[in-house]
Every structure is written in C-alpha cells, then in structure tokens.
Amino acid sequence: MNGQTRKDIKPGLEVDIVLKKDQRSGKLTRGVVKDLLTKSPSHPHGIKVRLEDGQVGRVKNIYEAGN
User: Fold this and answer.
1) H or E segment to which residue 30 belongs
2) Sorting pLDDT into bands at 50, 70 and 90, what band is 64?
3) CB 4 within 8 A of CB 42
4) Which three-class secondary structure state does DSSP give residue 8?
5) Which of 56, 45, 32, 40 is nearest to 3 (CA)?
6) Cα–Cα distances in angstroms (integers) from residue 54 to residues 33, 42, 44, in the given order
7) pLDDT score of 1
8) CA angle, corner 6, sides to 43 and 44, nearest 5?
9) CA quadruple 8, 61, 59, 30: dihedral positive or negative?
10) What average pLDDT does the segment 35-60 reach?
11) Given Cys at both, which of 14, 19, 50, 66 links 35, Cβ 3.0 to 4.6 Å?
12) Do strands 48-51 and 56-63 pair parallel, antiparallel, or not at all (unpaired)?
C-alpha cells in the first residue's frame, strides 16, 4: 500500500516515511505512526505523520500488522 490515502493510515501501523531532509535522496525511515498530521483525505506526496520517536515525514509504504 502507498501512503497517499489518510483512511489507510492509523496510529500503531509500521510505515516507511521520507523525512524533509531526505526528499532529494528518497532515503526511507521506518517507524511506527504516532499522529497523523495531514487533515485532507489524500495527498499526492503521501500523508504526513509523526512517528513514535518524534520524526515527521510523508508516508511512502505501509506494512500490515505482522509483516
């Protein structure tokens, strides 16, 4: 799943995000969603989230529980 639709993302899910500083390189950071920061139902570059460790970025991949 990609991270462009808000309804697909919930706190507690494991995701890959792109941090602002990594947008040029496309480097992904994996973590667990704490908060959803994007209010609109979708976003072409990915829904912006805050991870449990405090990092903020746009979701690129979503991992189902157990994967």
Assistant:
1) strand 29-36
2) confident
3) yes
4) helix
5) 45
6) 10, 22, 23
7) 78
8) 15
9) positive
10) 97
11) 50
12) antiparallel
